[in-house]
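We include the pair:
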Amino acid sequence: MKSIMSYDLMETVRNTNEWMGASARAMASYPVWGLAPHPMFKIMSAWGRVTERSFARMVIKPDWGIHSIAAEDGRDHLVEVETVVDKPFGSLIHFNVQGRAPMERRILLVAPMSGHYATLLRSTVASLLPDADVWVTDWHNARDIPVSEGKFDVEDYTLYLVDFMKKMGPDCNVIAVCQPAPLALAATAYLAEEDPTAQPRTLTLIGGPIDPDAAATEVTDFGRRVTMGQLEQMVIQRVGFKYQGAGRLVYPGLMQLASFISMNMDKHAQAFQEKIWSEANGEGSEHDKHYRFYDEYLAVMDMTAEFYLSTVERIFKGLEIAQNRFTVAGKPVDISKITTVAVKTVEGEKDDISAPGQCVAALDLCTGVPDSMKQQHLEPDAGHYGIFAGSHWRNNIRPLVLEFIDENAANPVPGKGKPATVTPIRTKKAAKAAEAS
C-alpha cells in the first residue's frame, strides 16, 4: 500500500499542476482584464497555457502523425499503421504505404523501452519510409498491463525480439536504437543457434550500451554507485488505483522524466521561459519547435520493475552482454555464433548517454562475422538524440545505414533462393563515385 500511495501522490501532483495551469489560463483570459492593460495578465495566461499542456502530455500516448509519404511515382501515398503481432507487453506494427509496390528493403526498427514511447522514433520512421518497408516494436505502458499478465524482464524482451524477427523473416534488416542494442544483439545470437534461417540479413546498432564500462557517463556512474537494494527502494513503486495495472511494480515514467530533466535543468528551464514569453507576446504557435519537441519528450511510460532492475543488474553492473555471458531461460547465448549477419555500429562523438566506445564493442564480440561484413561509424559533433532523429541522422547516418543494407543485400539468405535485388539510394559516397567515373 505504501508504494501505491507514493505512485498516486506523483499523479496527484501532476494533476494538480495541470489544473493550476488551466485555472490560470482561464482566469487571466477573461475579456474584462482588457480594461486593465497590465502585462501580468498576458504572462499569467501564457504560463497557464504552457503549464496545462506540459503536464497533460505526461499521461498521453502521442500519435505517430505519419499520414502520407511521397513515392518515386510522384504520388502521395496514404500510410496506415497496422498491428502485425500483438502481445501483452509490446506489439509489432507495420507502416503500410497503400498503393505502393513492395519494397526490397524491409526494416525492423527496434524502439527503446527507456521511459518514452516508440513514437520517439517518429522522425526516424518518416525518414526511412520513402526508401524502405518499415516495422517498429511498439512497447506498451506497464501501468496499463494487468498483474495477471505476469512478469517482463530482459529475457522476456529478448524473446519478444526473437518472435518479431521470426515474423519478419530472414530478409529483414534490424536497426536497434539505444537501450535495445545489446538485447537485439542477444536475440540475433539466440536465433543463430535455435533457428539460423530466421536471422536478419543485417544488424545496425545505434548508440547502445553493449559495453557500459568502455566509456564512463553519468548513467554508468550512477549504476556503479547505487546498490540494487537502494535502487529498488528509491525508484520502484506500485501502480495506483487509476490504471488497469494497479498493484504492478514499475519504474514510473514520471520519475524517469524527472531524472531526464535534472540532467539538463538549465536548458529546459530556459526553453520554457522563452516559450512563455513568446506566448505572452502573441508569437506562440500550436506546432512550433518547442511543442513539437516537448509534446514527445514529456510523454512518458512506466517500465516493469523487473525489466528496469534486470537491465541495471545484468547489462550495466554484471556486463553479461559485454562479457558474452548472457543467458535466456538458463540457456547461454553465444554472440560468437553469429556468422551470416552483417553488423554495423553507429556512435555520436558527443553522446552523453552511451559514450563512444560502448556500442562499437559489439564488433569485437562478433568473432564469427567476417571483417568484410562489419562496419562502424562515429558521427562528429553529434549527441545521443541526433544520431537517430536529428540532422546528423538525416544528412549523414541514414544514407550510410541504407548503403550498408544495400551492400549486404547480395549476401545469400539461408533457406531462400537468390538474394533480392535492391535499387540503391543516392548517397554522398555513390555520388562521388559517379562523378569520378
